[in-house]
Amino acid sequence: MKIVVLDGAILNPGDVDWSPISEIGELSVHDATPPGKVIERAGEADVLLTNKTPLKRKDIEKLRQVKLVCILATGYNVVDIEACAERDIPVCNVVAYGVDDVAQHTMAMLLEICRNVSMHTESVKAGEWKKVNAWCYWKKTPLCLEGLTMGVIGFGSIGRRMGELAHAFGMSVLADCPHPKNPPNYSPFAFASLDQILASSDVISLHCPLTPQTHEIINADTIAKMRDGAILLNTARGGLINEADAARALKSGKLYALGTDVLSIEPPGAANPLLKAPNTVITPHIAWATVKARQNIITLTAENIRRWKQGTPVNVVNGVSSAMPCS
Fold first, then answer.
1. Are 233 and 162 within 8 A, CB to CB?
2. Which end of the chain is more exposed for a tag (fewer CB within 10 A), N or C?
3. Active-site residue 266, yes or no?
4. Peptide bond into 184 cis (omega under 30)
């Protein structure tokens, strides 16, 4: 079996182990693949792995050897899953590989917003403490999370973990999800509608998938429904936020701050309005990037391939449950 990875450099710059996959078949790893090289590099692959390299219909129609596509991530919008389904090619993703990692990064951005640790560190290094000549000073008043309300939009594994962290900091938690069930055992907690979360939350954290229904779920209209001075967090997908509307809300003070690990276009162009918006913390899509999480992606992808070979594919996102095992 020939297994080809189209873009392995970011997932594994050398600090994690490909062996769970290489033990299954003959593995070829490309650091990155430009659009014009997809067919050349994947033409003889039985199993094709991609992280962010697009697999479009025109490519899939030419890949006559490919029998399984595995996405080295949870989001699968880079693959034309319908085109794969028409050829009976299962498309499998990996889920819950970095639940703690992403939730912790979200909380790290919130704490940075509330406590301004980086700002004060740079201030001290620049000699401002000495100039103030007092035992204490602050450039921006810290915020305390205890007693505030956290609204979680999307209550899957990461959203649930985020709720637990918020509760640990003394916050009340509201959660919006399509099918509310299995409420956590901490209190205060309640399932709530989107409008209720917008109106009642001091902090709103996005953990839902990007779908036609959630595209730009945060926009001028939904921001208008929020409490004045709310904090917005996003470690899900950049397309969940209308960035121009969010930038205007940050400038007006309607939003107190934004912490985001994702943008609508990555990397962003200079015209992205969030780059110049006040009170904005932006990290370069790194919430998932711990060694632990990246190794989990490889291990879980290997399991996806094994289950497919056994005729019982799992984590299939395009409805193709049949398997076409190869030796």
1. no
2. C
3. yes
4. no
Identify the helix (H) or strand (E) that includes residue 38: helix 38-42
Active-site option among 23, 122, 128, 266: 266
Fold topology of 99-282: Rossmann fold (3.40.50)
Give yes or no: 227 in active site.
Answer: no
Put simply, whether the predicted model's pTM sits higher than 0.90 gets the answer: yes
Q: What is the pLDDT of residues 196-212, one digit of tens each?
A: 999 999 999 999 998 89
Residue-wise pLDDT tens digits, 89-105: 999 999 999 999 999 99
pLDDT in tens, 134-169: 999 999 999 999 999 999 999 999 999 999 999 999
Active-site entry in 160, 207, 227, 237: 237
CB atoms closer than 10 angstroms to residue 193: 10
One fold for 2-97+290-309 and 99-282: yes
pLDDT of residue 75: 87
Q: How far is CA 255 from CA 105, 115, 279, 284, in A?
A: 20, 17, 9, 21
Active site residue 303: no
